[in-house]
Amino acid sequence: MDERQFVFLRDLTGAAGPSGYEGPVRAVWRASVSDFAAEVHGDTQGSITAIVNPSGSPRVMLAGHIDEIGLMVSNIDEKGFLSFVPIGGHDASILVGQRVHLQTSSGPVLGVIGRKPIHLMNAEDRKAPVEIRSLWIDIGVANREEAQELVRIGDTATFVGSLERLRGDRLVSKAFDNRVGAYVAAETARAIATGPLHAAVFAVGTCQEEIGYRGAITSAERIKPDVAIAIDVGFGLDHPEVDDEKKRHNGHALGKGPQISRGANVNPIVFDLLVAAAKEENIPIQIDPAPGETGTDGWAIQVAHHGVATGVVSVSLRYMHSPVEVLSIKDLDQTVALLAAFIRRLDSGSRFIVE
Question: Are 301 and 308 spatial neighbours (Cβ–Cβ below 8 Å)?
């Protein structure tokens, strides 16, 4: 990862964009792809597409969703405290004590998520699981009227956090799920843009994956790809308290290469081509057994229009759906290299029909 790529990923993860409100993220993504793509355009749903070699064959779709989990203001009480509901899946215990930015019509407003202090809890309170309905956002105002001058019902909030380096090649940030996929889609399109290329490549930052794959559904219908790769994050299981999960997910670890899903959501020919490309390029891979839906854009793309030959490739991630998601730069670089190698091997004669 060079300095340009680091800045791109930093700006991409730093932008606020829960499902349905990804405008700042689109702006960052568009700025990065505009210097090499033949076309860049958005759509009415909120996804954004960069196209390389638009007249080529086959038509390849790379999908990484640009939204992140978030919160939505649902009530403002008489003292100006904000109740909220989740956008996407949250572990409520992680929310306690977090700083958030509310996206308002006049710009971001800082808030903190409050809860009754442990000193004031009785024994039952301390044992009870944290529930979102027992939390609130404090923006530092004195009453409802002051709050309403800044915030409206339906405004969204995301974690405050910035991309930082840990030791070695490890990075930590909010929103790696799944700005990483959008980053890989863009960087793969950049990597193949200057070399010999048969395929038409549509790199898509899809919207609203966290609440139902909406952007993937509409983008696949619009693009009508022959083959597609959904790029997402997968569980990094090289940390404590996940021994049982290692049996179900093949013990995935950071720094061991991209995860390639195998199962009902994946075209077997696409899977074999991805594995062959990895072997020929000496790229380490991890196989992710996926007997049903993968929980990614891959499911929506696979069943779009007449059906799409779909693969799912993921970057291992620790602490998913938290403000401190951790990944390996090596895995990011190798995922880009794998997908670029896969695309370069495609030509107009490539077939994905399962006989």
Answer: yes
Q: How many domains does the chain divide into? A: 2
Is residue 209 part of the annotated active site? The answer reads yes
Q: Which of 187, 209, 210, 325 is catalytic?
A: 209
Q: pLDDT at position 240, please?
A: 79
285/334 Cα distance (integer angstroms): 9
Please check whether residues 120 and 151 belong to one and the same domain: yes
Per-residue pLDDT of 167-178, as tens digits, reads 999 999 999 999
pLDDT digits (tens, 9 = 90+) for 56-73: 999 999 999 999 999 999
**pLDDT at residue 90 above 70?**
yes
166: in domain: no
